[in-house]
Each structure stands twice: as C-alpha cells, then as structure tokens.
Amino acid sequence: MLGRMKVAAAERWRGSRCGSLALPLALACLLLACLVPAQAQEARKAQKDPYAAPRRALVAELRAQADDGVASIGNDVLRVLTQVPRHEFVPAAQRRHAYQNRPLAIGYGQTISQPYIVALMTALAKPDADDVVLEVGTGSGYQAAVLSPLVAKVYSIEIIAPLGEQARSRLQALGYDNVHTRIADGYYGWKEHAPFDAIVVTAAAQSVPPPLVAQLKPGGRMVIPVGGSFFTQVLMLVEKDAKGRVRTRQILPVRFVPLTRGSGG
Ligand code: SAH
Question: Residue 201: CB within 6 Å of ligand 1?
Fold first, then answer.
C-alpha cells in the first residue's frame, strides 16, 4: 500500500515535472514558430529590396526634421517616401548614395533633389486625392513618383528630351500610371490640362512665371524656387485664393538648377 502510494507520488511528481517543462517548451516552440518566419520574411524582403532598410533610415531622419518649424511634413508624405525606390531614379554609379539626404547627379548637368526638399515641396503643395498637379522639371521622375500616390493625376514637363524620355519609361515600368510626361518648356505650363490644384517647379526661375500663375486654380498652391544666382534662391509658396488673389511667401533658401528657356510651350 505504502509502496503503491510512493509510486503514485513519484508518478505525480514526474508528471508535474513533465508539465512544468512542457509549458516552457511549448512556449519556446511557439516563439520559434513566430520568430523564424518573421526572420525569414525579413531576409526575403532584404533580398528582394536591399534598399528597404536604408530607405526606412532616411525617412526616420526626415521625420526628425519634419517639424522643425519650416513647414510640417505629414505622415502621408513620409509614408510615400518609404515606398518610392529612389535608387531606381539615379544612375547605377549613384545607387549606393540613393538614401543619403542629398541631391545626386542624374546626367546632363541636372540633379535629383535632396529627399528633404522633395518631402517639403510635396507637403507645401498640400496634395489631395482628387488633385491634378503639374510638375515643371521631370528630371529623374522621382518627385513625380512621390506625388503620384497622393493625387489623382500628375502632369510633368521636362525640357531635356533624353531625360524626359528616360523618366517616362522608368515611371511606366514602376507602375506610376497616373503620371503623364511631356518634353517641352515648362515655363508655359500645360494648357490642355490646366487649371491645376497644385504646381511644383523643381528648377529655379528668375521670377514666378505668369503662365504658371494663370494655370493655377483658385485655392491652388505653387511651390517654386526663385532667384537668379545659385546662392540667392528662395523656395516660395504662391497661393491663389478663391477670388483669384495671389499671395507669395518665402519658405527657405535653396539651391536648384536653373529653369532654362526653350522655344515655347
Ligand atoms: N524633379 C526632378 C528634379 C530635376 S532637376 C527629380 O525629381 O529628379 C530640374 C529639372 O528641370 C532638370 O531635369 C531640368 O532639365 C529641368 N528643366 C529646366 N528648365 C526647364 C524648363 N523650362 N521646362 C521643363 N523642365 C526644365
């Protein structure tokens, strides 16, 4: 009797010891089951897009700058910057620099703007889902790609034909279907699709081009660097109110390539 009780106690003890191991074991298995796929998923993502992590780091840097008083850059704009593959918009030799917060050469003496400036100009244009936006200075197509998911349509004009053509096929290949491009002098805007809710000019003008002001909708915004020399440019926000009155504000000093003049719109 005593012996049977002892065995039973021993079994209970063994059972409970097994029970005390089973729970942590099960938890460990569960944790592993969760961690391994997550790690594998991260590894697969990194393999698929090795630039995703540097892109996130860049956006974290921009987020820290986003409320510095110049103009606030909202989450919607920052989210788009985590999605648009800037490395696809620069020449192969520049790819390793694609997620540094600085402008890069894109050929023909032109540059892709600094990501902070792209984010700031996008925020100042106050993009809305129904908006039709004009960009002057397609360049690489990056600014147009950033605007693309935030608005209904983007019309973008480039004066250097090979750059404009390259940007067009790049934007198409990457699926930015609501971006329409054209090779022309953007000083004259794009009459057929005017008026625009917003206009973003990414080359520095001597003064605000009157045809662009005319193609801005009442209630519309234009963001444009203005200034003759490379050292005295200012980013301006031009707002047209509901009655068509125009108000201009200086935002911050900038350095853009010049808005050159072609043969006409
Ligand atoms: N938005 C571009 C920045 C390009 S730099 C990007 O995201 O990459 C400015 C561009 O404006 C250059 O490609 C330059 O050729 C173009 N440009 C200069 N003058 C122009 C004009 N009058 N009309 C259209 N594009 C012009």
Answer: no
Q: What is the pTM of this model?
A: 0.84
With a 6 Å cutoff on the Cβ, whether 186 touches ligand 1 is yes
Query: What would the DSSP string read from start to end of 206-229?
Result: SS--HHHHHTEEEEEEEEEEE-SS
What confidence tens digit (pLDDT) does each residue in 168-205 have? 999 999 999 999 999 999 999 999 999 999 999 999 99
| 113 assigned to active site | yes
User: Mutate which of 113, 159, 230 to test ligand 1's pocket (most atoms within 8 Å of Cβ)?
Assistant: 159
Which contacts (CB < 8 Å, 24+ apart) does range 97-101 have?
98/51, 98/54, 99/51, 99/54, 99/55, 99/57, 99/58, 100/58, 101/58, 101/61, 101/62
pLDDT for 218 equals 98
Domain extent listing, the chain: 52-254
Q: What does CATH list as the number for 52-254?
A: 3.40.50.150
Helix (H) or strand (E) run with residue 150 in it: none
pLDDT tens, position by position, 228-246:
776 789 999 999 999 999 9
Ligand 1: nearest atom to the Cα of 111: 5
